[in-house]
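During the reporting period the student researcher (J.K.) took over the structure-prediction task from the postdoctoral fellow and processed the backlog of single-chain submissions. One of the processed entries is reproduced below for the supervisory committee.
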Amino acid sequence: MTKFRNWLSALTAADAATVFFLTILSIVNLIFASRVEQWAGLILLNCALTSGIIFAANRSLHSSSTKLQFIHDWYLVAMVLFIFKETYWMVHPIHPYDYDWLLIKIDRTLFGVDPTRWLEQWASPLVTEILQISYTSYYFILLSVFTELYLEKRRTEFLSAGFFIVYGFYLSYIGYFLLPAVGPRFALYNFSSLNHDLPGLFLTNFLRDFVNTGESISKGMANAVAFAQRDVFPSGHTQLTLIALYLAFHFRLHVRWVLLALGSLLIISTVYLRYHYGVDVLAGVLFFLFTIWSAKKLESWWETKKEML
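J.K. obtained the following structure tokens:
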């Protein structure tokens, strides 16, 4: 038991959050094994990843290997992507009913119109091009925060930022389970006509295909809605972008003003480009506020808990 506590004490807050979330996903897979076809493989993979995280955290803490330290510092980038895809295999089989109708109804109640249709009055190829580039800058915004802190060797801030961001990701994934939806590009429009209805200039179509591929929609796929990731509510792009901006200004990063400009355009793009409903963005703001409030408490709690192990 003492050895196990020592192993746990090496975990950062981000490590602990990831191990906890992988454990929860494994339990959910086990409960819904009759619906999730890949449940056994997912559980085995989650167990292997959990073991790897604990091992890497302990080895990097007691080793002078810079390679091992680098892997432990940056594995979270791959981890949030892996868990995002794991939810793809789980959400729709577990909760096969989409709630786009509810989100559309809330939008019309709040705004008196579909926000995507209201924004069409400003649509032009140039605006579409700028906003599609901004939307695709999502991971650049997140990685910029990590990169500057890492290069400046601000390790305490780097680890704290890592926890805030991965914790925010995991909270957004819970929203996908609770209220799965495919978004207005499917529910309000003809998805296959998007390039024609909302054309860009040079990069828009390529970047759209890139985003679609990340959501398991290949180019020219028939009945794409059946394969789309149910990742609309809340808008993770809004939530995580706001978290990144909060961290950039809180830590006074040099890149903060560039990220503010990109992030502002990105949030507008989520609705303009028909990825999200207006209510998704509002939910993303609320999830952001909850993430910041609760992450501070959880991070403090974990650091105190580690000293007691």
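The committee noted the following: The mean pLDDT is 94.
J.K. will present the remaining backlog at the next meeting.
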